[in-house]
Each structure stands twice: as C-alpha cells, then as structure tokens.
Design goal:
Layout (H helix, E strand, L loop, with lengths): L1 H8 L9 E7 L8 E6 L12 E4 L4 E11 L2 E6 L5 H4 L6 E5 L20 E4 L4 E9 L6 E5 L5 E5 L5 E5 L4 E4 L11
Length: 185
C-alpha cells in the first residue's frame, strides 16, 4: 500500500507530495465569478489574496483576488475569472497548494505530510513498518503503519508513545506498546 501512496503523490521523494489538499470548490455564487470553498485546512493564510492555488487533478493555477466568508464556506474570487459561467466548470474540483510554497515552521514543528513514508521502529530497534496514513481523530491523531507482511498497526500520536522523529534519516521511534501483539500465540 505505501507504494500506491507514493504513486498518487506524484513526488520524487516518497514521503513528500508535490501538492496538498486545501479544500473542495462548490457551486458558483452570484454573477461575478465567486465560488465557495469547503475549507479542509486550518492554515487560512494559504488562501489569502495574491496567493496562487491549484485546481483539479491537472493542478491548473489560479490567483486569489479576494476572499470572504459566507457561513462556513469561504467565497473565492480569482483574478483570471470574472463570470459565473466560467467559474462553474470548477464546481466540485479540489483545491491544492504546492508543498514547496508552504510557510516555514519552527524548528520543533513538522507538517503531517512529512511523516508519510517514515520507517517506524520500537525503542528496542524492532522494525514495525512504514507509516502510510494519518487518521485525524477528536482526541489525537493515529498513525497507520503497515508492516512488511501487510499487517496494519495503529499507533496513537501522543508524546508518551512517539519518542523520536528523524526526517533526515526517514525514521520514527515509538515506545513499546504492551497491548500490541497480546493474544497472539
């Protein structure tokens, strides 16, 4: 499964996708070419005026001219589009940003997409597998790791369990989870 993820990302580096999803465009609003966005990101600065974003599977670039909120949707107006009929072709398309255009983080911060593809080891050096998905839950994220045999392992992303993340070496070290493997004979 990790291989499939790498192919979908379109990236040269296995755990670094070229684009990250920001949200989904809805039906046009009004006659000036505005279109509502169902926002999937918490980084609203990525949707500021003058930012270039990318729409659809072909990642067509558009420049944001202005934004305004309408209830829980963000209305976008693109520099390139001034007409309802022209913007309507973007309905239900996904909106992306290039990962290379993400703002830098503080030294101790990591973008979640940077974790995808990390090799995961227990603190005693035992190899668990490769992190291939992050499940966002209400309490804390959960890392989905796939072993070489195809077994999926769920690891809670909490400070007591995640001991080390080394992006340079492409690895993560986790505390031994006593409940893992219980009941196996």
């Amino acid at each position: 499964m990790p291989q499939d993820f790498e192919n979908r990302s379109g990236s040269q580096v296995s755990r670094e996708p070229d684009f990250l999803l920001l949200g989904k465009l809805r039906r046009p609003h009004g006659v000036r070419g505005e279109i509502p966005l169902e926002v999937y990101t918490q980084m609203l600065e990525l949707l500021a005026p003058d930012r270039v974003i990318y729409v659809g599977e072909n990642h067509q670039p558009y420049t944001i001219q202005e934004t305004r909120w309408k209830q829980d949707l963000l209305l976008l107006k693109f520099v390139e589009i001034n007409d309802r009929s022209l913007v309507s072709v973007l309905t239900n398309q996904m909106l992306y940003v290039k990962t290379s255009e993400l703002p830098p983080l503080d030294d101790e911060e990591i973008y979640l997409h940077e974790l995808i593809g990390l090799k995961v080891y227990e603190e005693d050096g035992a190899y668990l597998g490769e992190l291939f998905e992050i499940l966002e839950t209400g309490a804390n994220d959960v890392y989905l790791v796939q072993s070489d045999s195809g077994e999926e392992i769920l690891i809670p992303a909490i400070e007591d369990i995640i001991l080390e993340i080394d992006l340079e070496q492409g690895k993560m070290v986790v505390a031994r989870m006593e409940w893992y493997g219980e009941g196996e004979g």
